Model the fold of this input.
Amino acid sequence: MTQEYDLIVIGAGAVGENVADRAARGGLSVALVEAELVGGECSYWACMPSKALLRAGEVVRAARAVGGAKEAVTGEVDAAAVLARRNSFTSDWNDSGQVDWVKGAGIDLVRGHAVFTGVKTLTVTAGDGSTTELRARHAVTVSTGSVALLPDIPGLAEAAPWTSREATSAQTIPPRLAIVGGGVVTVEMATAYATLGSTVTLVARSGLLANQEPFAGELVADALKELGVDLRLGDSPERIERDEDGVVRTTLSDGSTIESEEILIATGRLPRTGDLGLETIGLTPDEWLDVDDTMLVLGADGSPLEGEWLYATGDVNHRALLTHQGKYQARAAGDVIVARAKGETVDDAPWGRHVATADHRAVPQVTFTDPAVASIGLTAKAAEEAGLATTVVDYEIGSVAGAAVHTDGYKGTARIVVDDDRQVIVGATFVGPDVQELLHSATVAVVGEVPLKRLWHAVPSYPTISEVWLRLLEGYGRKSA
Done:
């Protein structure tokens, strides 16, 4: 018999869980479908394990940067202990705790792989081959995320490369690790593995953190060099081979060769939509799902599918491939699904309860390198390309008293991008030790469009790194005088 629910959510990662939870709290019956581990990528192969791999090295380096503490540091990071602590955060890849949460939230978990068989109908095939037929009364949400892109490099597939999954779940540290790519996964894993004992070579054709302010990539590159990472910027692999002894040989475009025990490819992501049966409902498999601001999936004509029943949240809609943004979308989607199911008013005006407006202009992001990179909103270049009249203000964070106390020889840079016409901040970037703790104040300023004349009255405590806000505002005052 077909099982019916008000809402069916495909994908029980952090995003899908949040959609399901919001809808269940609103009184809807919900089925959550998962083919792998409940908790998804973030819990087992991304956010949590990667930050656990990075934290110990960050703490040791922080201690070594403070006189009186550095004298107490007598050893190196214990790689085995770091891996064990990482394993504890993933519960050794056992999702029973997450399953208990789903049940406790009043949500039905259906194990298996879901395929659309028609409008609001799905077949879920479990690992043992058994099938379950599901039908949604009101909505289906796709929250299946993304997978690593493997570029078309001769020999790559045969070389059994690592993706972010293998890098965050490895149980041993390879003596040598080659990394290809220039984004967040690349620089975070280069930081982690260099700290844990690998000899790391990083190959990035377009440089590091190309979508951030230029100084972010420059400061992170300097830090990676200090960790002993061999940076090959402006270069790219032309062939990759793994020999019978397990050694990977990567030939670069300049003719040089890198030898390593493992190679990590982190050059982008693809939507996990290829095997969902999207063609049965008029959509194209293997493509990102385009959505409106309430997360309704749009068809080829740019309109929601007939009946306005299909939603997509998280990576799969390609708006912002970040867990916190996906969860933000999930809250909006879960609430609007409840509202539409009950015939209630939909608040879909900009910044309304049922929309994800922030995805367009207020996306916060932290890269957990050492120094960290924290940013929100538009870069100076993006603001210029958007046609805004702006003033850009930079300040060296180490000149703030709180930073000097925090770390001996503190190195870091802060930048704000101000829309001169509206006198509000539209972008901010901070690079330096612990700057991630500055980011939410910047997020509030950007999302709230706080006028600079009011922001002057948000007095930073002394002596803290947050005093950089005062210096940035003073810099803007000098520039605009």
Remarks:
- The chain has 15 helices and 21 strands.
